[in-house]
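Why run this: before we spend reagent on co-expression, it is cheaper to look at a predicted model of the complex and decide which construct boundaries make sense. The entries below are exactly what would go into the expression plan.
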Amino acid sequence: MSPTPNRDPQPDPHEGIHDFIAGGLCLILSSGLAIYHTAQAGRLHEDFERDPGPAFLPVVLLIALGLLGAALTIRGGLRMRHSQLSEISASLFSFWPAAVAIAILGTFLPLSELAGAAAALSIIGAALALLAGRTETAKWPVSAVSGALVGLVLFGVFRFGLSVPL
Amino acid sequence: MMYDLFVTILTDLISPYSLFLAFTGVVLGLVFGALPGVSSTMALAVILPFTYGMETPAAMTLMLAVFFSSVYAGSVSAILLNIPGTPGAMITLLDGHSMARKGNAVEAMAYALIASIFGGFIGWGFLVMLAPMIASYALEFGSAEYAAVVFFGLALVAYASSGDTLRGLAAGTMGLIIGVVGRDQITDVPRFTFGTADLQGGISIIPLAIGLFGIAEVLSLLSRTDKNATHVPEVTARTWPKWRALRQELPTALRGSVIGTFVGAIPAAGSAIAVALAYACEKRMSKTPKIFGTGIPRGVVAPEAANNACVGGALIPMMTLGIPGDSITAVLIGVLLLHGLRPGPGLFENQPELILTIYSALFVAIVLTAVVAGAIGIPVYRKILAIPQRLLTAGVLILCLLGAYSVRNAVVDVWIAIFFGAVGLSFIRLNIPVLPLAFGAVLGPLLEENLRRTLLIHRDMSVFFERPISCTLIALSLAILVVPAFVSMISKVQARR
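The model came back. Tokens follow.
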């Protein structure tokens, strides 16, 4: 006799990974900031209930974040028992166009200092249009030129229309 | 006297400059809202830089026009392409696109427009009626009540946001930490400034919002591998619905509008929940629930009335308590802060003209949306929907960069926007709700100010539990956070047995 199929809704295998990563990030963030905060804003006032001081709310929030991070990590760990490592790597791989776009955006300020804002925005516009147009039917020179034009037009709008000192 | 002031402000709003701003806002909102993947919040983040040099009333006129019309325009791609333009249009596509496939796209869009305008007016009516009452009540609040309101708002946001409560709480806590970055107002002690002078004044909300709602959303679209089909069904019938048919849908529109207004007023509940509730309500009340989803006008009217009524609803907590009702009102709070105004009950006392301007601007936005959207035909939408992804991506991302820079002409704001763009993208990928982060960042200073003031005056934490309003709000917050987890645990245990 074949086993009865399980009709209960199965948890998304990625949810465990998401919880684990989110929890880990919360723990790293809370502990890192806690070390920095203790050095910068001073210790929690002894009588904090009557005189909260500048360290009070940040300390409460860091403790809360640490606890939430621990809870998420544990829940993620429990859920992840059923996930494959390949699912994790596949989930991260689809991230690359966004990572490239962030890198392109990050070049705006150094490029502006080197070549001026107009050139920087044209280059960034071209690069972003190439990245976004990779799955479209337009040829790459068309994508690059149209993206560069968008950058130039927006430079004109902000520099001359809105008088922003770029 | 208030009536005279309202008439004066409405007269100002129909001046050529204000009308031009409102018209521009409506057109931009219709374009952005119709584009699949471009949410109303992203539209507002993109428009934001153009408001920096404006007076507050002019900025609010433009922003509210974009807000209202983009919410309506979400239905365009839902009906024509079967892709919701905004989250609030996700239910509209069920019947709207079915109608379009039968050749009745014009009729479906007419129902969507009429229901949206109707919902907009109902939401506006509730806003005008309820906001002054809530504000006058909130003026009686002390610092303990105010701290409890912020806590309650955060609990609601963590619970109602997509993802789950634990992740929502983590995001909200991160937001509150962002809110306390900078020099302490009382003792001048720096917190989380990492030795840079740029962070001494705290993290500005506008670059943060541009990063979280503008950059992050475009980056998320860029990573999507599923490409949208852009085939618009042929139109065979070009008739608008008859008056009799419209009258039959009136109760549906009314129910949808009331649901939309009240759900919109709950922080973070948002239009996605409102439309689902309105649709479910109509289906449950119908004698023939099976026909829902096959292309009936009622399936378009209910969600469209609800999502546009949410606009007025979301403005209620923003204006009366200073708590954002959704991500869009979080951006609007950023605009007010940029102009040196903190929304909340004090605004009703100190800036009654601005309150009336907001009422009037929303009213004008609704009327103009009816006029402009009514005049636009399907061929125009076909052109809007054909804008290439590459131009949209490059344009929106560059606008975000320049928008962040031009807040204070400061380089650090560009880095903040890029940083929060990356943070927002990570949140989207990890299914962590973004809204609590923005919510926490907006409310962090408010919470700290009121918490410290309460403790300094009363010298004891127990004051929060001694005052009835703060005690009730804290109890409700804990119930919101604990009860659902408890219920789910019990049901899991029962299922295992």
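The two ends of chain A are 75 Å apart (CA to CA). Chain A is about 70% helix and 0% strand. Bring this page to Monday's planning discussion.
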